[in-house]
Structures are given as C-alpha cells and as structure tokens.
C-alpha cells in the first residue's frame, strides 16, 4: 500500500470505503464517487451495518465485550 497523505489525513485508495472514528468519538463514513447503479460491495455494506448499530448502546457493549474476550486469548 502506498502511503499517501495530506494535511487533512490519509487519502483512500480509489474505490475504497472507510468508517472513521475521530479522536472525539464521532463517526465519518466515506464512499467512492461511483455511478448510482454501481453495486455496493458486501464488506462496505458491513461497515454501514456497523454504523447503524453503533446507535444501539446494548449492541456496542456486547461487541466490546467480545473484543475484550478475544484480546485476552
């Protein structure tokens, strides 16, 4: 991967999507500028699902618990 960055941060490779969390805990979601009829890749759909579920505090706590459990192993 090429390390491309600007004073605003890292530039995503063409066609990439990203779910970003700021230092303040705010989410930003970035999608490529594709034509409207372009299918959304499965893993990009997963990022959208995570973003949507992030508003459910119970789900967030459950996911963090799984993360913590995996980190201990």
Outline the structure in words.
The protein has 73 residues and is an alpha+beta fold. It has two helices and four strands. It has helices spanning 42-53, 57-72, and strands at residues 5-6, 9-10, 18-21, 27-30. The longest helix has 16 residues, at 57-72. It is extended. The model has no long low-confidence stretch (mean pLDDT 90).
Primary descriptors:
4 strands, extended, two-stranded antiparallel sheet, 38% helix, 73 residues
Write the layout of secondary structure elements.
Blueprint: E1 5-6, E2 9-10, E3 18-21, E4 27-30, H1 42-53, H2 57-72
Antiparallel strand pairs: 1-2, 3-4
Quick recap:
This protein has 73 residues and is an alpha+beta fold.
- Number of DSSP E strands: 4
Model regions low in confidence, pLDDT < 50 over at least 5 residues: none
Number of helices, counting only DSSP H or I runs of 4 residues or more = 2
Q: Which structural class best describes the helix and strand composition?
A: alpha+beta
Distance between the termini: 30 Å
Largest sheet: 2 strands, antiparallel
Helix fraction by DSSP (H/I, runs of at least 4): 25-40%
Largest beta sheet: strand ordering: 1-2
Shape: extended
Strand content: 15-25%
Order of helices and strands: EEEEHH
Cα radius of gyration in angstroms: 15 Å
Mean pLDDT: 90
């Amino acid at each position: 991967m090429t390390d491309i960055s600007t004073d605003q941060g890292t530039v995503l490779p063409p066609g990439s999507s990203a779910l970003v969390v700021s230092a303040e805990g705010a989410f930003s979601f970035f999608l490529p500028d594709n034509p409207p009829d372009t299918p959304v890749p499965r893993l990009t759909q997963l990022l959208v699902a995570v973003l949507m579920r992030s508003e459910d505090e119970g789900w967030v706590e459950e996911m963090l618990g799984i993360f913590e459990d995996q980190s201990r192993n």
